[in-house]
C-alpha cells in the first residue's frame, strides 16, 4: 500500500515538472520557498537564538554551553535524512551501526556510552522528552529520527542535568519542529527506496494546525558476511526497513496540543549480533501527547504542561538454527529455535511548570518543578520451544509450533521522580555574563541528586568570546538495567545507583567578517559510573565502578569564503577515555561545503571516524581493531520555479566498504554498513 501511494505521487510530481519546464511563463525563474543558507550572513548564523542551554532564548555566542546549531535550510541543502546521519557532522558526536538491529545506530557525545539506547543523551522535541520509559534512551525506540520536520537542532555537548535532570549527562539534543509549511516531497532511489513526506498548515475555527507525515520504506542492501557455520563460508542477507513519523501541533492563543508518533520496522540482517533471514524481526513504536498552557506578563512568562509517552518494542530472533532441535524436541521439529519479547506498553506521565522572569535589563531568573511517573510492566519472553525446559536440560523439549509466552525477562516496576530547579543569569558591565543554577531530583527507591552549574561568558571585544563552564550531571539507572532477569545476554542489577559526571570546559570563539572559529578543551570526571561487565560466557551485567575520565578538545570552523560559497568543518580529539569506550572513535572530523548559483545549489560533505576496537570470542578483554573510515555525501538541487524543487543526492558517494564495532562480543568481524545509495526527489510547495 505504501509503495502504491508513493508511486502515484511520483507520477503526479513528474507531470508537474514536465508542465513547469514546458511553460514559457517559467522562463524567468523565481526564488524557491526555502531560502538559501548562503543568503544569511555569518554574523546571522552566529546570532541564531538557541533555547536548550538555558530554557530561554540566547544567542549562540552567549549561550552558557558548548553548542552547535543546524537550521532547516542547512540540513535540507546537505541532503541528510535522519538524526543518526547528522550527528556525525556535529563536534564531539558520533553514530555507528552496532548490530543490535538493522536500524540501530546509537549516538554518543565525547566517546562515552554504556548501552545501545544512548541513555546518556537527552532528546527533546519541542520541549518534550522523547525516550523509552524502559531503557531511558531515545536511539533504540526512535531509530533514524527524520530530519525533514526540523526547523532547528541544537547539539549541546556536556551536562544538562541542572535544567533537565536525569539522562542529560553527556549531552542534550534539542529539536524545534517546523510550522507554517505547505508542501509535499517524494523520493525514490537505490535499494528500492521510496519516501513521501507531507506538510500542511491551516487555521480551523481560530485554531492553528500544523501537520507533518513522513513515510519511508526500502528493500535494503545485500551483504555476504563471513560465517563459520555456512558451507561456502558466507551467509547472504539484507536489511529491509520501513518507518512512519507523524507530528501534529494545534494552537489557539496560548494553549497548544502536540502529538508525536514514530514507528519503525526491520527484518533479517543482525539482531542482537545474530543473522537469521526470515526470522529476525524488529518493530518499535513511540507515541507522545502533550498539552501546554502559557501565561505571559510584561516581564515574565510561565508554562504548565502535562504529557504522556508510551512505547513498545517487539523483537524476534533466532536462538538456534534450523535442525538443531530435531533430536531433542517433542513433537520432533526442524524449526529454528526462536525467541523474542512481546510488544508490552511502557508509559511515562509528566507534569511540568517552568518560569522565566526578566528582573531587569541585566538579570533573569528561571525556575520550575516537574513530576514524572514511569510504569514499566513485566517484559514477557516468547519462544517456539519450551525455553525453561531447555535451560534446565529437561529433555525432550516441547515444541509449541508458534511463539508462546515464556518466563519474564524483566520484573515489573514503577518510578516516581520529583524535580525542582533554579537558575539566575546576570550581566556585569555588558561584558561578563554569569549563569548560576542547580536542580534537585528525588527518585523513589533510588535516592536524590543535586546538580549544580556555573558558567562565565566573557566578551571583551566583538570578535572574541570566552566561556568557562562547570557542571555536575547524572544518569539514574534505567528500569531495564535494574530489573532484567533470566536473560542469557544481559542481567539487571537492582543495587545500581545513579552515575555522576563532573565537567569543566573552556571555550574560545573568534569571529570576523569572513569566518568564525570555536575551540574548546574539556574534562569529564565520572563517579559511581555504571559500567557493563562480563559475568560469564556472553552474559553482561552493569555495576557501579570507578571509571577513567574523558579529556579532549574540539575545533569548529564556519567560513563564508564568498557570497556563494559556505564551508563548515570540525574536528574532535579525545586523548583520555574509559577503557569500556573502545567501540567509540577517539578522533573525529567532518566537512561540509555548499555552493549557490542562481537556482542551483551544490552541497558535498564527508565525515571521518578514527579506528576503534571490537570484542571477540565472547570476552571483552579479547579485542581486534576496526579500521577508520570516511563517508561522503552529496546533493545537487534546482528550483524549477517558486513551487517546485528537484534534487539528486547520494550517501556513501564512493561506495566505501565500512564496518563498525558491534555491541556483541561474539562476532569475529565488524558490522557492515550500507553501500552507495542515490535518490531522486521532488518538493512541491502549495
Automatic annotation (TrEMBL):
- Per its record, what are the GO molecular function terms? siderophore uptake transmembrane transporter activity
Give the membrane topology: Multi-pass membrane protein
- PROSITE patterns assigned to the protein according to its UniProt record, in alphabetical order: TONB_DEPENDENT_REC_2, TONB_DEPENDENT_REC_3
Q: Where is the signal peptide?
A: 1-22
Keywords for this protein: Cell outer membrane, Membrane, Receptor, Signal, TonB box, Transmembrane, Transmembrane beta strand, Transport
User: What region holds the TonB-dependent receptor plug domain?
Assistant: 63-172
Mainly localized where? membrane
Residue interval(s) of motif TonB C-terminal box? 669-686
Compartments where found: Cell outer membrane
Q: List, alphabetically, the InterPro entries matched.
A: Beta-barrel_TonB (IPR000531), Beta-barrel_TonB_sf (IPR036942), Plug_dom (IPR012910), Plug_dom_sf (IPR037066), TonB-dep_rcpt-like (IPR039426), TonB_rcpt_CS (IPR010917)
Q: Per its record, how is this protein called by name?
A: TonB-dependent receptor
Instruction: Tell me which species this is from.
Output: Saccharophagus degradans (strain 2-40 / ATCC 43961 / DSM 17024)
